[in-house]
Automatic annotation (TrEMBL):
It comes from Oikopleura dioica. It comes from the Eukaryota. This is ABC transmembrane type-1 domain-containing protein. It is found in: Membrane. It is a multi-pass membrane protein. One of its GO terms (molecular function) is ATP binding. The lineage of its organism: Eukaryota, Metazoa, Chordata, Tunicata, Appendicularia. GO terms for cellular component: apical plasma membrane. Residues 168-384 form the ABC transmembrane type-1 domain. InterPro entries: AAA+_ATPase, ABC1_TM_dom, ABC1_TM_sf, ABC_transporter-like_ATP-bd, ABC_transporter-like_CS, P-loop_NTPase, Type_1_exporter.
Length: 595
């Protein structure tokens, strides 16, 4: 090869002195090319064998893994230090740790060795660079000033856009509060599932905003610069990269597809199910304990978490192969570039004096490929973000029929006449079962109406229709002759007080937190027969009542709820078995016939 090159140089009729110089230089460069080819090939080979090895190792029998998981679980985590926790964590995932160990031990020494010829080469090229170093210095000063606005812009996008998920999260929550009751009746929209979605989705959207966006801009810029430089110095060589481009795109596209595909959906469902089980079990921990169902809930939770684990294992394996393949394509591209540049020099297409240009092109292409690889690394985050954004947007655009935030509708002063005329109703989740079949009744102002019937006959349903939690399927619900569907929802609900069978007292509130005159509060508490026991509480009216009012007895909760309703002095008071937990004495004291 060297001889042929020498002869082609000879054609240009260089003086012998120069020829000698070139010969020595070319000799070591050619050796370098040969070495590098072998190094790259061996690198590709070891990497692919390690990947195959790790892939097959990753498929451990499921039973084995579960056992490990259980022994790890049964040990007391809190008792031991961080190291202990780390070891416990590592046990079931040992196989997966192997990957990283494997990669460090097998690949990096190899990669390290491949740097040596480059250093050797630099010393050759250095002599040429020396004369250019002055102009390089100037370039770097230009770069320095160019860098300032770039960093400013990138920080601006970083600083500005990460705020995006934050309002998104509160927007999603605000939307949740405005949704129809029918939405919450759906099993897939349980409390646990909704909180999980609220907590994770808005956060995941960040994967496609803020830092990512600025990084993508930087990468596009770097890629453009790299390719630009490469094309400027040697277009033939640069053109070769395009032959590898389809393979790169295919592997990247497959990686993206993997992350946004069905896997994400199945896993998300499992996470939501798990958090649904966790919320239900913890909020009703007494029931769970008394029924002896702790193990059952534990198992359901674990099964769901396992689904996410399985999904991840599958994904990691396929992702690993794809990532390996995309790296492989890159290395084959380098190998091809070196071979092709050899050919170009060999065939006399590239002047022997321009070998430094080849290195410029190669460096620029390596740089471009690296940034492209970096962007590819962001694919999973981006894929997840797209999925999460899809779910959030779906929630935000979910149609609300009964909108409490609406400013429209009548706001009449009412006296309190309630009228049901031929009302028919079926719950949205059970459209084929009519709960109310042509209900007709009139309640005059000042009158008290008691609905009596077996449980499940539709008493609470009537109340829900009057509060307009749902719309009647047929017929009309009227207050003072106004159809409730035509009234402003906020106005309607401010005129109708409701005490439910299981009153809810919020943990974040003190017992009574209305800005009302003291004597009104006192009167309401006395009327609800709650005054005496409230005074006996440690902080009186300022007492916080714990999660769902758990620090109060059922009867006390009901009395507080009745007082809370009485205090507002609404025209219509609805009591849905509100005194079911009261002793007969209290029940007598509460004058439910005088709202
Ligand atoms: N959110 C709901 N979704 C579907 N069906 C419901 C819902 N709430 C109640 N039901 C059904 O409607 C019927 C009437 O319930 P309800 O009005 O609560 O009875 P009650 O007279 O005991 O208060 C029952 O058969 C019940 O199963
Ligand atoms: Mg009821």
């Amino acid at each position: 090869m060297t001889t042929r090159l020498r002869s082609s140089v000879g054609k240009f009729g260089r003086p012998p002195r120069v020829r000698f110089k070139i010969r020595t230089q070319l000799g070591s460069e050619a050796r370098y090319f040969k070495d590098l080819n072998w190094l790259i090939l061996s690198n590709v080979f070891t990497k692919s064998t390690v990947l195959i090895f790790i892939y097959f190792q990753g498929i451990l029998p499921k039973k084995n893994r579960d056992q490990k998981f259980e022994t790890a679980n049964s040990t007391n985590f809190m008792k031991k230090s961080f190291v202990k926790i780390f070891i416990l964590q590592a046990k079931p995932y040992l196989v997966y740790k192997m990957r990283s160990f494997g990669l460090i031990f097998f690949c990096y020494p190899n990669e390290g060795r491949s740097e040596f010829p480059e250093i050797e080469l630099m010393s050759i090229v250095n002599s040429k660079l020396k004369c250019q170093s002055n102009s390089f210095g100037t370039y770097y000063i230009y770069l320095f000033f160019f860098e300032i606005p770039c960093v400013l812009i990138s920080n601006w996008t970083r600083g500005g856009l990460p705020n995006f998920p934050r309002p998104l999260r509160s927007q999603a929550f605000a939307k949740l509060l405005r949704l129809d009751m029918g939405y919450f009746d759906e099993p897939i929209n349980s409390t646990g599932a909704l909180t999980a979605r609220l907590a994770t989705d808005a956060g995941k959207v960040q994967g496609a905003t803020g830092r990512r966006i600025s990084q993508i801009f930087i990468n596009i810029g770097a890629l453009g610069c790299g390719l630009g430089i490469a094309f400027y110095y040697e277009w033939r060589l640069s053109l070769l990269t395009f032959a590898f481009l389809p393979f790169m795109i295919v592997t990247q596209a497959l990686m993206m597809k993997l992350m946004t595909g069905n896997f994400g959906g199945k896993e998300q469902q499992a996470i939501e199910n798990a958090s649904k089980v966790a919320t239900e079990a913890t909020t009703n921990i007494r029931t769970v304990a008394s029924l002896g169902r702790k193990a059952y809930f534990g198992k359901v939770y674990k099964d769901n978490i396992d689904v996410t684990f399985e999904g991840k294992v599958q994904k990691i394996n396929i992702y690993g192969i794809l990532y390996g393949a995309s790296l492989g394509v890159m290395f084959f591209m380098f190998a091809g570039l070196f071979r092709f540049s050899m050919y170009l020099i060999d065939a006399g297409i590239i002047d022997i004096n321009r070998t430094s240009d080849i290195f410029r092109v190669l460096t620029a292409l390596v740089f471009a490929a690296e940034t492209a690889g970096q962007s590819a690394g962001m694919a999973p985050d981006y894929g997840q973000a797209v999925l999460a954004a899809r779910r959030v947007v779906k929630l935000l655009q979910f149609p609300t029929i009964i909108n409490p935030a609406s400013r429209e509708g009548q706001r009449p002063e009412i006296t309190g006449k309630v009228e049901f005329s031929a009302v028919e109703f079926a719950y949205p989740t059970r459209k084929d079962v009519l709960v109310l079949k042509g209900l007709k009744t009139v309640v005059e102002p000042g009158q008290t109406l008691a609905l009596v019937g077996q449980s499940g006959c539709g008493k609470s349903t009537c109340i829900s229709l009057l509060e307009r939690f749902y719309n009647a399927s047929a017929g009309e619900v009227k207050i003072d002759g106004y159809d409730v569907t035509g009234m402003n929802l906020k106005w309607l609900r401010s005129n109708v007080g409701l005490v439910q069978q299981e009153p809810v007292l919020f943990a974040i509130w003190v017992l009574i937190n209305f800005h009302q005159p003291c004597q009104d509060i006192e009167a309401a508490l006395k009327e609800a027969n709650a005054y005496d026991f409230v005074l006996d509480l440690p902080q009186g009216l300022e007492t916080r009542c714990g999660k769902k009012g758990s620090q109060l007895s059922g009867g006390q909760k009901q009395r507080i709820a009745i007082a809370r309703a009485l205090i507002r002095k609404q025209k219509i008071l609805l009591l849905d078995e509100a005194t079911s937990a009261l002793d007969t004495e209290s029940e007598k004291v509460i004058h439910i016939d005088q709202p």
